[in-house]
């Protein structure tokens, strides 16, 4: 049987971005540690410290990956993180008995916020940038009206989330990697994941193929918001209390978007994955650690981060051109 | 004439939109194992009929019967579940996903919540085999050629166990060879008992593939008859109310003027040894298969992907054309083959679109004084190309393809270029608009301009051009007179020796 069409030559595949970023980050970290003579950073504690730096940004960025993959975006995560942290410590007030209720309340708030984000975007057809910006402002307004400083505290038992460890490895680091693994399986091996990529790649095409695109969009936003809520819980555990500025100060909204993009996920949706995102988080953590070792102050760090985001996207654009041309 | 039981029956379908009666009491049927072609000008109601059938629109009146049972579709998923699959004109594949993921989109098999990739791959391979295709299910859809993507779209439709397959201009983006293969495939599906509703503007296809033909005009069905009883000229008359003879304007009898475009040993990553001269008053057709480099040639002349070797002269003066802006400044104009992607600001008005190039070259002060901004200039340009629109300040995406194309032509008339390159100027536009654009092209030529017509539509190239050059593998491999036979052109376009044509340049040419 002969082929019905002549086969176009296949373009060669470029090496996987996540691997490149992982290796590059590690080389950078080891190189700076050796160069500055801070070899203690290469002991177990140094590595654990590096991984620990990844946790907060890592959790929220995994969520951000989901929404960006379906061609949406979430600017409300930073403020939702603040809400989660404050709500957790305010409800707990240092009492062990209130741990479960507090977690339940934070997760419920997150689900509701995610559903609202998704409903505004899918139902009212509001541009996701505007929709989540608006929801984020509302959240911050509500929070600032009610709290002006650290509110309540978390009990000792809850601090295990941030400070507990299995051997040398903190629970939080294990949790982040378990989360990434789960996200990877969800994206790559489930029907929901396939539909997520489909909505991001071509929403109308997906709808005509029978995919319930609105449901997919809302689900992605719920996942993103829940992970932002979890990040808030983690920060409350780590800071031992929640303040209404923790999310904003961490610039989790813009940084989560930046690492997703550095990791090779298209801002336009439809292509990318969670390992790239995690590699982007590792790169940011490594930069922080390396610049600390070099004794560089905070503002040059920002400049460097900005430059890296732009370089990364320019590199992807150049690669795409190579494929197209 | 029908070969099996009626798979589809649409009875007295009516559908109105604010201000428009898109369909008025249209009845339509298609039997299993039959190809029923639908033709009509843009705006005749074909797309609305298809969208009603596909569950995109709900009809105001009328009933749809699938295999004799009345059905109503609230959304596209309902129609698919009932066995109706529509292959839309704009391909809807996910470029970054594999063929298998695309084929099974919306019905992914799972095992314990996990995607059963093995089953998807196997199912896809089976469907593709049924279509006599050897596309690898693990290929990224974006890496496929347009023709291959069309096959994947068909496989996707069959994955839903489609008993009724609607194909909306499936060959619009294909060259002659791939189009012929696709038609053979349609014949094969018919043998397998699929009811096929086939929409096309290409008259020669209808005779080749259709059992019955229905002609629509102004929201009504004019006729349904056996294909053998409807010769092409009669179809055209029914569609537009005039004869095919008037279709291509007569060639000029005057000898061509001085050369306006001369290319000597032009080449770049895709093209090699291009020797081409176009004279004032001439329409030169550029024919070739997909990937032959004919689009690349147009883009090289226009400076979008410029020549890296050789010389280009415009009106006898050597020019270095490194960018579209430089090309325009030197008197070259270009109508892109994908007018929605490369030609129009879809959300802006016909006026804004027609003034785009004029404004791009207007001095800043003139802009402030309103020179290039005035509606009267825009309106006179739009009148010259006979754009018909309810509002000249509405969004251009609401206009028909033919009127959109006329706006782009008007944009170039404003600059009055010496050389105008038309890439697929009539792709997906209706017969009346086609004739109008052909007339504009001929008028431009007789006013001393040089016209280059790059097209995959062979009858168009043959009917309109004074001379034809044929491309293959990034080179010009031959030339014919205007009015040459399709066989003569095709003989040059396909490689008889089956060797060098798939050389390196073709790869990049196919991607353009």
Task: Describe this protein's structure.
The complex is a heterodimer of chains A (325) and B (512). Chain A is an all-alpha fold. Helix content of chain A is 73%, strand content 1%. Chain A contains 14 helices and two strands; from the N terminus they run ααααααββαααααααα. Chain A has helices at residues 17-35, 44-69, 77-92, 99-122, 128-146, 156-163, 171-189, 191-201, 203-208, 213-239, 246-249, 252-262, 274-294, 298-324, and strands at residues 165-166, 169-170. In chain A, strands 1-2 form a two-stranded antiparallel sheet. In chain A, β1 and β2 form a beta hairpin. The longest helix of chain A is centred in the C-terminal third of the chain and has 27 residues, at 213-239. The radius of gyration of chain A is 21 Å and the shape is globular. The two termini of chain A are 32 Å apart. Chain B has 20 helices and 22 strands. Chain B has a six-stranded mixed β-sheet, with helices on both faces. The two termini of chain B are 43 Å apart. The model of chain B is unreliable at 497-512 (pLDDT under 50). In chain B, β21 and β22 form a beta hairpin. Chain B has 512 residues and is α/β, with parallel strands linked by helices.
Describe the structure in brief:
The complex is a heterodimer of chains A (325) and B (512). Chain A is mostly helical.
Tags for this model:
A: 325 residues; mainly alpha; disordered N terminus; B: 512 residues; six-stranded mixed β-sheet; 22 strands; globular
Give the helices and strands, then pairings:
The complex is a heterodimer of chains A (325) and B (512).
Chain A lengths: L16 H19 L8 H26 L7 H16 L6 H24 L5 H19 L9 H8 L1 E2 L2 E2 H19 L1 H11 L1 H6 L4 H27 L6 H4 L2 H11 L11 H21 L3 H27 L1
Antiparallel strand pairs in A: 1-2
Chain B lengths: L5 E12 L2 E12 L3 E5 L6 H8 L7 E6 L2 E3 L4 H6 L2 E4 L11 H5 L6 E2 L2 E2 L1 H14 L15 H14 L4 E5 L7 H16 L3 E5 L3 H7 L2 E6 L2 E7 L5 H9 L18 E9 L6 E6 L3 E6 L5 H8 L7 E6 L2 E3 L4 H6 L2 E4 L3 H5 L6 H5 L1 H6 L2 H6 L5 H10 L16 H13 L5 E5 L7 H16 L3 E5 L3 H7 L2 E6 L2 E7 L4 H8 L10 H8 L1
Parallel strand pairs in B: 3-10, 3-11, 6-9, 9-10, 15-20, 15-21, 18-19, 19-20
Antiparallel strand pairs in B: 1-2, 1-4, 4-5, 7-8, 11-12, 13-14, 13-16, 16-17, 21-22
Helix pairs in contact in B: 4-5, 16-17
């Amino acid at each position: 049987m002969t082929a019905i069409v002549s086969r176009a030559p296949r373009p060669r595949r470029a090496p996987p971005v996540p691997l490149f970023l992982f290796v590059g980050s590690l080389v950078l970290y080891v190189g700076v540690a050796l160069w500055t003579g801070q070899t203690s950073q290469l002991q177990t504690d140094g590595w654990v410290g590096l991984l620990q730096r990844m946790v907060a940004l890592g959790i929220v960025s995994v969520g951000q990956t989901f929404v960006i993959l379906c061609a949406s975006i979430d600017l409300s995560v930073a403020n939702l993180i603040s809400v989660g942290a404050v709500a957790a410590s305010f409800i707990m007030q240092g009492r062990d008995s209130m741990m479960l209720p507090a977690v339940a309340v934070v997760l419920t708030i997150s689900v509701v916020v995610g559903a609202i984000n998704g409903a505004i975007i899918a139902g009212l057809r509001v541009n996701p940038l505007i929709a989540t910006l608006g929801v984020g402002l509302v959240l911050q307004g509500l929070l600032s009206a009610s709290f002006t400083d650290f509110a309540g505290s978390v009990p000792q038992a809850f601090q295990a989330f941030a400070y507990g460890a299995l051997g040398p490895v903190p629970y939080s680091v294990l949790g982040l990697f378990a989360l990434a693994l789960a996200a990877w399986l969800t994206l790559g091996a489930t029907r929901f994941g396939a539909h997520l990529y489909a909505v991001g790649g071509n929403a109308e095409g997906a709808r005509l193929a029978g995919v319930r695109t609105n449901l997919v969009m809302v689900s992605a936003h719920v996942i993103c918001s829940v992970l932002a809520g979890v990040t808030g819980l983690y920060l409350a555990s780590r800071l031992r209390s929640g303040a209404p500025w923790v999310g904003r100060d961490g610039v989790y909204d813009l940084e989560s978007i930046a690492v997703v993009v550095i990791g090779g996920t298209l801002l336009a949706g439809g292509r990318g994955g969670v390992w790239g995102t995690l590699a982007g988080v590792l790169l940011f953590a490594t930069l922080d650690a390396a610049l600390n070792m070099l004794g560089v102050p905070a503002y040059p760090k920002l400049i460097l981060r900005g430059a890296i985001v732009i370089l990364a996207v320019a590199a992807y654009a150049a690669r795409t051109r190579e494929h197209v041309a | 004439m029908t070969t099996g039981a009626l798979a589809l029956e649409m009875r007295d379908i009516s559908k109105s939109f604010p201000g428009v009666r898109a369909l008025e009491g249209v009845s339509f049927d298609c039997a299993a194992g039959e190809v029923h072609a639908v033709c009509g000008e843009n705006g005749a109601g074909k797309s609305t009929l298809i969208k009603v059938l596909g569950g995109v629109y709900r009809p105001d009146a009328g009933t749809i019967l699938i295999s004799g049972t009345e059905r109503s579709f609230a959304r596209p998923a309902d129609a698919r579940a009932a066995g109706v699959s529509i292959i839309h004109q704009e391909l809807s594949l996910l470029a970054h996903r594999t063929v298998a993921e695309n084929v099974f989109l919306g019905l992914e098999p799972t095992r314990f919540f996990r995607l059963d990739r093995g089953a998807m791959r196997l199912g896809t391979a089976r469907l593709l085999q049924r279509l006599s295709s050897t596309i690898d299910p693990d290929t990224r859809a974006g890496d496929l050629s347009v023709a291959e993507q069309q096959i994947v779209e068909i496989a996707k439709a069959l994955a839903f166990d489609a008993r009724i397959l609607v194909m909306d201009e499936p060959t619009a983006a294909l060259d002659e060879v791939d189009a012929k293969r696709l038609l053979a495939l349609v014949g094969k599906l018919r043998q397998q008992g699929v009811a096929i509703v086939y929409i096309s503007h290409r008259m020669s296809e209808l005779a080749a593939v259709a059992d019955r033909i229905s002609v629509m005009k102004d929201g009504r069905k004019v006729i349904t008859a056996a294909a053998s009883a409807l010769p092409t000229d009669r179809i055209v008359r029914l569609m537009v109310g005039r004869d095919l003879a008037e279709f291509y304007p007569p060639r000029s009898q005057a000898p061509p003027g001085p050369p306006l475009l001369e290319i000597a040993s032009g080449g770049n990553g895709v093209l090699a040894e291009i020797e081409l001269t176009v004279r004032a008053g001439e329409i030169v057709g550029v024919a070739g298969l997909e990937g032959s480099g004919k689009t690349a040639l147009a883009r090289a002349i226009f400076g979008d992907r410029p020549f890296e070797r050789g010389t280009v002269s415009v009106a006898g003066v050597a020019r270095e054309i490194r960018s579209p802006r430089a090309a325009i400044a030197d008197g070259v104009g270009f109508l892109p083959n994908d007018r929605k992607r490369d030609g129009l600001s879809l959300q802006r008005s016909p006026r804004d679109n027609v003034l785009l190039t004029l404004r791009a070259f207007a001095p800043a002060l003139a802009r402030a004084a309103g020179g290039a901004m005035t509606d009267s200039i825009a309106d006179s340009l739009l009148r010259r190309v006979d754009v018909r629109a309810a509002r000249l300040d509405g969004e251009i995406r609401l206009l028909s393809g033919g009127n959109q194309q006329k706006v782009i032509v008007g944009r170039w008339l404003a600059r009055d270029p010496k050389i105008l390159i038309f890439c697929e100027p009539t792709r997906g536009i209706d017969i009346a608009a086609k004739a109008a654009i052909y007339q504009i092209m001929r008028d431009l030529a007789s006013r001393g301009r040089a016209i280059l017509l790059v097209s995959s539509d062979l009858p168009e190239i043959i009917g309109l051009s004074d001379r034809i050059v044929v491309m293959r593998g990034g080179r010009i491999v031959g030339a014919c007179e205007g009015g040459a036979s399709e066989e003569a052109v095709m003989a040059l376009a396909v490689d008889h020796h089956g060797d060098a044509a798939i050389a390196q340049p073709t790869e990049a040419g196919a991607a353009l």
